[in-house]
């Protein structure tokens, strides 16, 4: 999944918390959200200086991307065959964040799981030069 495909998928499924999201989709959207926030913070600093105290452009960007950010996290946990309730561990400082980072880094379950089919479809190991397991 390309970077633009991942962003398009995240925004097309703005309020969709069902189904699964691949690691590529989640990583691409997190990178987009992080980089976008930095860019808008910089623009706020250039345009308004430090006079407002509140960066309006960055806040607008974060508000617009917050819902798809959370829904991508939900779907990513579904891809690892976990409930989206695990996202609540983000409220546990450090240990919760590390647990989520571990979950997000794991590969998704092969084939269908309780949350739906594989987000990227069935992958043939021969496509990567590997021989299938016997």
Descriptive keywords:
134 residues; mainly alpha
- Can you tell me the number of structural domains? 1
Count the strands? 0
Largest sheet: none
Question: Which regions contain 5 or more consecutive residues with pLDDT less than 50?
Answer: none
Provide the residue-averaged pLDDT: 86
Radius of gyration: 18 Å
| SS class | mainly alpha
State the order of secondary-structure elements, H for helix, E for strand.
Answer: HHHH
DSSP helix fraction: 40-55%
Distance between the termini: 28 Å
Overall, the morphology is: elongated
Report strand %.
Answer: under 5%
Number of helices: 4
Note down, in words, how this protein is organized.
- The chain is an all-alpha fold and 134 residues long.
- It has one domain (3-108).
- The protein is built from four helices and no strands.
- Helix 1 (3-12) crosses helix 2 and helix 2 runs antiparallel to helix 3 (56-79).
- The longest helix has 26 residues, at 23-48.
- The chain is elongated, with a radius of gyration of 18 Å.
- The model has no long low-confidence stretch (mean pLDDT 86).
Short description:
The protein is mostly helical.
Layout of secondary structure:
Blueprint: H1 3-12, H2 23-48, H3 56-79, H4 95-105
Helix pairs in contact: 1-2, 2-3
């Amino acid at each position: 999944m390309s970077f633009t495909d991942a962003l398009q998928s995240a925004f097309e499924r703005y309020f969709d918390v069902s189904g699964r999201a691949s690691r590529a989709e989640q990583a691409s959207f997190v990178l987009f959200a992080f980089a976008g926030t930095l860019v808008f913070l910089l623009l706020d600093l250039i345009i308004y200086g430090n006079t407002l105290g509140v960066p309006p452009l960055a806040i607008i960007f974060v508000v617009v991307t917050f819902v798809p950010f959370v829904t991508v996290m939900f779907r990513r946990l579904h891809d690892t065959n976990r409930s989206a309730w695990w996202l609540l561990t983000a409220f546990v400082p450090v240990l919760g964040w590390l647990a989520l980072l571990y979950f997000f880094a794991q590969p998704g379950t092969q084939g269908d799981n309780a949350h739906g089919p594989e987000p990227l479809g069935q992958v043939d190991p021969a496509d990567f030069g590997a021989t299938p397991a016997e």
